[in-house]
Amino acid sequence: MRELVEKNQHVIMVPANFKFANKGTITEVKPDGFTLELEYEPDGVLKNTYCEFYIETSNGTLYFDSFPKDIQGKTIFVASPAKHKFLQRRQFTRVKYVHDLELKNGDNSYKISTLDISAGGMKFKTTENINIEAEYAVTLPLSENINVTCNYSPIRIEKGNNGIYTHSGRFVYDNNRNKMELIQYCTKRNIEIKNK
Q1: SS (H, E, C) the chain
Q2: pLDDT score of 86
Q3: Which residue from 55, 69, 76, 81 lies 20 to 30 Å from 156 (Cα-Cα)?
Q4: Residue 5: what pLDDT?
Q5: Is residue 122 within 8 Å of residue 130, measured between CB atoms?
């Protein structure tokens, strides 16, 4: 584990109560853990209470559960986890996501059928002629209680022989919380699918 965690790496930390999610930078690595300098005050984060951690490495996204052994303001010391796993090599975990949704641009709305999503973007099919140059608002239901709203920016459109367009594009976020919601959702769905 120690060779995977390095100084200056960026970390996303998600406690049990998601609204207290935080991010920071590793400032020191020791055999028994690492020091993390957080961007925000660690409200809702308790010593010896498990959180989820996500770190981007050259081998993909590193995921593990661990806990702060010490909290001094925005500086926390995180214990080395017993185990870890790599989610995948792409920057964000992509999972199957099949929903009938709407893209909105001003007064115009377009019906789409999603195929997959990640925190970086989504892929969907539609019969509508959607302008690749525009940006669209979309609301993604993640559970009965959680919806994430973000902007979708098309990158690639392919037209099939049956008149159905397949779109791929990226998400643009108004706030980091929505992005972290999607990272957590996709990560958990990916683990669930692999464990089936």
Answers
A1: CCCCCCCCCEEEEEECCHHHCEEEEEEEEECCEEEEEECCCCCCCCCCCCEEEEEEECCEEEEEEECEEEEECCEEEEECCCCCEECCCCCCCCEECCCEEEEEECCEEEEEEEEEECCCEEEEEECCCCCCCCCEEEEEECCCCCEEEEEEEEEEEEECCCCCEEEEEEEECCCHHHHHHHHHHHHHHHHHHHHC
A2: 65
A3: 55
A4: 85
A5: no
